[in-house]
Design brief:
Layout lengths: L1 H27 L9 H10 L13 E4 L2 E4 L4 H13 L5 H23 L5 H13 L3 H7 L2 H22 L3 H17 L7 H13 L3 H26 L17 H7 L7 H10 L3 E2 L6 E2 L7 H4 L4 H4 L7 H18 L18 H10 L7 H22 L7
Length: 398
């Protein structure tokens, strides 16, 4: 039985990985870096004993004392570092994105087996294929620029954090889960806003009144704060500022940032529209839609997630907690000046993905029924061809 399960897991995971590899390779006929290669360059700088970048571009960099520093948090630079060291020029961020994808869908396979265990194997297979090929995991992997790899890297550790936390039955496992959240936050600093939710959930669940346990649960969060302070200090000589306000941003955002700043309530509605609602424009030319590079809503390009909203079981504390985490993360994401431009889909959705996939699997949707199955097919269509349209519209005569 175990051999059968392992064989089934290997076949379906490898199948989705091969499909994604073929799409990625077919766009340009190679797996060279798509654009920027920011994490690769930063990893090279680390190996040379530097944290500043010696590059000829200025997008998403912070100038300080005549040097340029990458504004994007450094998790992926640390993750790609061993590959850069051992394989040097043979590794690219495009290949690295495929590695992240492969690990991520293994985790999602475990999600399906754990959270949809009551479903039949055919139903679980369809749910997994949807998560692997019908969500932002696919286009982020195929597009593979540093901005997209950043959300993939953090999503990987956030997924592990949720899986560990859900199944935790000891203080040690709770601390491991919060540590994984801390690692995810090194790639997306704003994910740290759910530290209090994780800590308090764990404490009230088993250790209420035990101050030593509370202190232990806070250790990963304190270590994260210490890391960010150190990271600020080695770059800017001060532990108290990431100097994000000095970021060299794209001209596209210049007018809004000058008027409203990097974060403002006025950005909420564009993020909600492009992140959740925006439907791709339908056309008569194959593949029958055009993308909006400001973002296409997740309920439009991955419509199976609509079933999360149809789940009326509000008595499950873990479902409520997942919604709480998404609501907290939405505060920094939806008040940010950028919706993720330029992109297909809404890459910031991966900040919510572990919770959304959990809620979907817990919704008990039957993917073999006509409407859910249609939603899965639409999702795969949009996400497969959306990535291609974004990177190489000429393949379809656009």
């Amino acid at each position: 039985m175990l051999k059968y399960k392992l064989g089934y897991a290997a076949i379906i995971i490898v199948f989705c990985t091969i499909v994604t590899f073929i799409i990625s390779y077919s766009i340009s006929g190679h797996l060279d870096g798509r654009s920027g290669e920011m994490f690769y360059v930063q990893a090279e700088a680390f190996l040379q004993g530097r944290v500043n970048l010696d590059v000829n571009w200025d997008l998403d960099l912070i100038p300080f004392n005549g040097k340029l520093f990458l504004a994007i948090p450094p998790l992926n630079s640390f993750l790609i570092l061993p590959f850069v060291y051992f394989f040097k020029g043979k590794i690219t961020e495009t290949i690295f994105s495929l590695i992240l994808y492969f690990i991520l869908i293994i985790i999602q396979f475990i999600y399906v087996e754990k959270f949809a265990a009551n479903q039949k194997i055919g139903q679980r297979s369809l749910l997994f294929i949807f998560l692997a090929l019908g969500t932002m995991l696919l286009p982020c992997t195929v597009i593979a620029s540093s901005w997209f790899n950043a959300v993939l890297g953090s999503c990987l550790f956030l997924s592990l954090a949720w899986l560990t936390f859900y199944h935790s039955n000891s203080l040690k496992q709770d601390i491991i889960a919060i540590t994984l959240l801390a690692i995810a936050s090194i790639g997306r600093f704003h994910l740290a806003v759910i530290f209090p939710a994780f800590i308090l959930k764990a404490w009230f669940r088993r250790y209420s009144g035990n101050l030593k346990a509370l202190a232990a649960l806070c250790i990963p969060a304190v270590m994260f704060i210490m890391f960010v302070a150190w990271w600020n200090w080695v770059r800017f000589g001060s532990p108290f500022s990431i100097k994000y306000e000095e970021l060299l941003y794209a001209d596209f955002f210049q007018e809004n940032i000058q008027k409203y700043g990097f974060r403002n309530l006025i950005y909420i509605f564009p993020n909600i529209y492009h992140g959740i609602i925006a439907i791709p424009k339908l056309v008569t030319q194959f593949p029958f839609f055009k993308i909006d590079d400001m973002g296409n809503g997740i309920l439009a390009i991955s419509p199976l997630f609509i079933y999360v909203l149809r789940d009326n079981n509000r008595g499950d504390s873990w479902k409520n907690f997942a919604w709480l985490c998404m609501a907290i993360i939405a505060i920094p994401v939806f008040t940010h000046c950028s919706t993720g431009w330029q992109q297909f889909g809404y890459r910031y959705f991966l900040d919510f993905f572990p919770f959304a996939s959990f809620l979907l699997l817990k919704s008990k949707v039957d993917p073999t029924r006509a409407l859910p199955l249609t939603c899965i097919l639409i999702s795969i269509w949009f996400n497969m061809f959306g990535a291609v349209l974004f990177l190489n519209p000429k393949l379809f005569g656009a």
